[in-house]
Amino acid sequence: MSQANNGADLDASASGISSSGSKRKRSFVWDHFTKLDNAEKCVCDHCGRIYTCNSTCGTGHLWRHLDRCEGHKKGNVSQEALQTLNLGHTGVRIKVEELRDIHEVKDCLRKTKGMTDQLALTKATITRTQLVSAGDHVCLDLCSLMKHGEGLLVGTYSGGLFLVHSEHSESNPSASRPFRVHAGPVHAHIALPDGKTCYLSELQEGKDVMLVNQNGMRRTAMIGRIEIESQPLILVEAMTLEESNIHQKSMSIFLQNAGTVGFVTPHEENNPLKIVIPVTSLKVGDEVLVRLHSE
Ligand SMILES: [Zn+2]
């Protein structure tokens, strides 16, 4: 792959926002390595080799490894083969040597074929809403069009994530932006396709996020543009609807207080058209969909 050759350029182009508001760099190489211990060492996600990665040694040696890494190459071959499958071939035969290979192919299939498995979503009841002051709010534009009822899982804590709807509007098609989600402030957690979460401030253009619909069907989409602007926020708190109090769980989220921002609601047999509640008309007692996320 050419990623290693372009390492320096990619490093320079990848950016996030620091607490001071200035741009900081975060290398795309961290999509392939996981930091260990005190971030002094890291492990290659594809082959398990361990490298030094403290702040003084840069990422050049990690890019060089990625260029040679057999595990990474195998993953790329699987992905290319499966993407070709999308263009009209009827089958692909892939030779696997280890169990891990099968998992990599499964991940590639998930990325390539879109909709795959179903995620368990839970009903939660809104317990409080409060207008608060402005905060740095993250607006995500994806390289995919979302369907009505699809959104991203976001929350103040990673253990309880709300299904935040896209700016898809059936009632006002001219104002519809089905590629956009007003996701929340920089500190909020967002669910990723690999089952982990990250802060909204850590997202980068080119990174994948997980789209989920009202039925819990999920697929992967790539971020095309990120805009962070100061916006008036609303604090929303909710509680899950477990019969036993022991298992009740409370959760919260801050969102931009605008009519284009809303939550996906649970399916109701007697009101199948009610899919989204805008935050501007949210009331205590309304039901929304949440994901109880376990690390
Ligand atoms: Zn490796």
TrEMBL record:
Keywords in UniProt for this one? Amino-acid biosynthesis, Aromatic amino acid biosynthesis, Metal-binding, Zinc, Zinc-finger
Q: What's a BP term from Gene Ontology annotated to this protein? A: amino acid biosynthetic process
Chain residue ranges for the region called Disordered: 1-22
Q: Which Pfam families match?
A: DHQS_2nd (PF26558), zf-BED (PF02892)
Keyword Cytoplasm assigned to the entry: answer is: no
Give every BED-type domain span: 24-79
Residue spans of biased composition, Low complexity class: 12-21
Instruction: Please provide, alphabetically and separated by semicolons, the GO molecular function terms listed in this UniProt record.
Output: 3-dehydroquinate synthase activity; DNA binding; oxidoreductase activity; zinc ion binding
Q: What is this protein called?
A: BED-type domain-containing protein
Q: Which organism is it from?
A: Acorus calamus
